[in-house]
Specification:
By secondary structure, the chain is mostly helical. About 70% of the residues lie in helices and about 0% in strands. The chain has two domains: about 1-60, no CATH class; about 65-109, no CATH class. It has helices spanning about 1-20, 30-55, 65-85, 90-100.
Length: about 110
């Protein structure tokens, strides 16, 4: 039973790496460069899952690599807008809006 569960988790790891971290998008020919690319892609998925598991409020929610990608894309865009328009994200009024915008587009599970 434990082998079957492990196999199932490994399949999810490869699926997420292919869909979200570019596992199959490398054009290198060198063995060292290919090894680095594969390791970087798989480590990105593993770090996201580790971060998700370390948060106590996510115990009842399923892991979604799509949510992580959306979250960090939103954070990057929001940071850029805040910088360009000289908006302080740390004010009490803006903190609620920033939290709402970071979660924009996430899968409701």
């Amino acid at each position: 039973m434990s082998y079957y569960q492990s196999r199932f988790q490994i399949e999810f790891l490869y699926r997420d790496a292919k869909q979200f971290t570019g596992l199959t998008h490398c054009q290198a020919r060198s063995e060292n460069k290919l090894d680095f690319h594969f390791n970087a892609s798989l480590i990105a998925v593993n770090l996201a899952k580790y971060d998700w598991l370390s948060q106590k409020n996510n115990m009842n929610k399923p892991f979604s690599m799509s949510d992580y990608k959306t979250l960090y894309n939103n954070a990057l865009m929001l940071e850029r807008f805040m910088y360009m328009f000289a908006v302080n994200p740390n004010t009490a009024k803006n903190q609620k809006i920033v939290k709402e915008l970071l979660d924009y587009g996430k899968i409701a599970a």
